[in-house]
Design goal:
Strands 1-2-3-4 form a four-stranded mixed beta sheet. The longest helix is centred in the middle third of the chain and has 16 residues, at 60-75. By secondary structure, it is an alpha/beta fold. Helix 1 runs parallel beside helix 2 (60-75). The chain has helices spanning 30-42, 60-75, 87-95, 99-102; strands at 6-13, 16-25, 47-58, 79-83. The radius of gyration is 13 Å and the shape is globular. It contains four helices and four strands; from the N terminus they run E-E-H-E-H-E-H-H. Helix 1 links the parallel strand 2 (16-25) and strand 3 (47-58). The model has no long low-confidence stretch (mean pLDDT 87). Residues 18-97 form the STAS domain. It comes from Streptomyces thermocarboxydovorans. Pfam families: STAS_2. This is STAS domain-containing protein.
Length: 115
């Protein structure tokens, strides 16, 4: 029996959802992330908090999902916020210029700074 490469947990509180991802976001798992986040929008969620604390790795396929869902959210006056990205994910966001668009947050709300 193989363990899943990614676990997705969702907890709703009114029009806000906390989506916790645990594992690896790559070409195999990115479609599951996209489906979970898009379902939030279809369910009328207007603020999607994505907790990346337990994401081991996120590649450009995961980044594409976050960008696309963020764009879809904005079209419906909703927001996607990334919280607690790993240093690798934080670097990916900053290197691609997406850090301002996705609002990655560190503990206590401090924004990462570009080098």
């Amino acid at each position: 029996m193989t363990l899943p490469r990614l676990n997705i947990y969702r907890h709703d509180r009114g029009a806000r959802a906390l989506v916790t991802l645990a594992g690896v976001i790559d070409p195999v798992t990115a479609p599951r992330v996209r489906a979970a986040l898009e379902q939030c929008l279809r369910d009328g969620i207007t603020l999607i908090d994505v907790d990346l604390t337990t994401v081991d790795r996120c590649d450009d396929s995961g980044l594409r999902v976050f960008l696309d869902v963020s764009e879809h959210a904005a079209e419906s006056r909703a927001f996607l916020l990334l919280h607690h990205p790993s240093l690798q994910t934080e670097r990916l966001l900053m290197d691609t210029g997406c850090d301002g668009l996705l609002h990655p947050m560190r503990p206590k709300g401090a924004r990462p700074q570009r080098a």
